[in-house]
Specification:
Ferritin, mainly alpha, elongated, about 180 residues, about 0% strand
C-alpha cells in the first residue's frame, strides 16, 4: 500500500482541477491540455478537407456510375460517402472543441486535402481512385496519430476510430477491384 498520500486523498493534482473550473471561456481546453493546439487544429483542418473531398468523390461516383450489375458498387459508394461525412462532422466538432475554426471554404479543400478528387467514368477506375484515396487517408491518419502521441488523447482516439473505418473502406475497395 502506498503511504505517500493520506487515506481518502487522490494522487491527482487537485489544484489543476480547481484551476480548470475557473477558465470557462476555454471550453474543453484546460490548462492541463498537453497538445500543441494550433498544430493539431491545422492537422485536423487538413483531415477535414480530405474527408470532404472524399465525400464529393464518392457522391460523384455514386451518381455517375452506370452499367449492368453496378447496384452493389453504387451502394458501397453511397455508404462510404455517408461514413466520410460522419468523419468530417466529428473532425469539425473537435476543431471547435479545441477553440479553432473548421475550414469549409471550397477554395481551400483541394489545396488542404491529402486525397484527390476523381471524375472517372469507368467503374474500375472509380474503385481504384477510391482505394488510392483510402490508402492516402490511412497513412495521413497514422502520421497524425503518431505526431499527437499522448498529448491529446481525445483527438488521438477519434483519429484511431476514423482510421479503422478507412481501413475497412480500403478493404471494401480492394475486394471490389478484385471482382
Amino acid at each position: 500500500m502506498d503511504n505517500s498520500t493520506p487515506a481518502g486523498r487522490s494522487a491527482i493534482d487537485t489544484e489543476a482541477i480547481r484551476i480548470a473550473a475557473k477558465n470557462l471561456d476555454d471550453g474543453a481546453v484546460t490548462t492541463g491540455y498537453g497538445g500543441n493546439r494550433l498544430e493539431i487544429i491545422n492537422m485536423l483542418n487538413s483531415a477535414l478537407a480530405t474527408e470532404l473531398v472524399c465525400v464529393l468523390r464518392y457522391k460523384r461516383h455514386y451518381f455517375t456510375i452506370s452499367g449492368p450489375g453496378n447496384g452493389p458498387v453504387k451502394a458501397e459508394f453511397l455508404q462510404h460517402a455517408q461514413d466520410e461525412q460522419g468523419h468530417a462532422d466529428q473532425i469539425a466538432e473537435r476543431i471547435v472543441q479545441l477553440n479553432g475554426s473548421p475550414d469549409f471554404n471550397p477554395a481551400n479543400l483541394s489545396i488542404s486535402s491529402h486525397a484527390e478528387y476523381d471524375d472517372s467514368s469507368d467503374m474500375q477506375a472509380m474503385i481504384k481512385a477510391n482505394l488510392i484515396a483510402e490508402r492516402v487517408a490511412i497513412e495521413a491518419y497514422r502520421q497524425m496519430i503518431a505526431k499527437i502521441g499522448d498529448s491529446d488523447p481525445t483527438t488521438r482516439l477519434m483519429l484511431v476510430g476514423i482510421m479503422a473505418v478507412e481501413e475497412e473502406h480500403a478493404d471494401d475497395m480492394r475486394d471490389l477491384l478484385a471482382k
